[in-house]
Amino acid sequence: MNIGFGVCGSFCTFSKMFPAMEALAREHKLTPIFSNSAYTIDSRFGTAEAHIARAKEICGTEVLHTISQVEPIGPKKLLDLLVIAPCTGNTLAKLRCGIADGPVTMAAKSHLRNGRPVVVAISTNDGLAGAAENIGRLLNRKHYYFVPFGQDHPQGKPTSLVADFERIPETVEAALSGIQVQPLLL
Known about the structure:
Layout: E1 2-7, H1 14-27, E2 29-34, H2 36-40, H3 48-59, H4 67-70, E3 81-87, H5 89-97, H6 103-112, E4 118-124, H7 132-139, E5 144-146, E6 149-151, E7 161-163, H8 168-176
Parallel strand pairs: 1-2, 1-3, 3-4, 4-5
Antiparallel strand pairs: 4-7, 6-7
Helix pairs in contact: 1-3, 5-7
């Protein structure tokens, strides 16, 4: 299977995302795709350069990071499935509205033209606030599958949601069969 792995800028989840990427890379050919933020921002969770190098090492290929690099994904039918992990609230909103203004959202738009699955592993501080409507809309849209998610810190961040990144491989396998992993809420 050819799987695209879109990475957005929820840097605090990168320590969970990379093991999931490694697990998928053992079974599938992965193409890493980084959002503008993931490709350029250094944070307290590591440098962009280090994250790019790790993705390149895991996947064995260059990281795609421009709209022009990912646009052929749909027309050339390059992917069987696209994972977006972490998927930020900003990216959720863009996916819901069909906005393709960056590498990950363009990859999704291009990939969806073929009616193939997109697996979303959310990580957003406003999942039970501003992003809730976007999650609901995408749950009702064909070809979107969510990695099971829940509140990551109910007392300190009561509206924050994060996916169980260890369940990405399970969700990918189910999505390839057109099935949403259950239970969805943790």
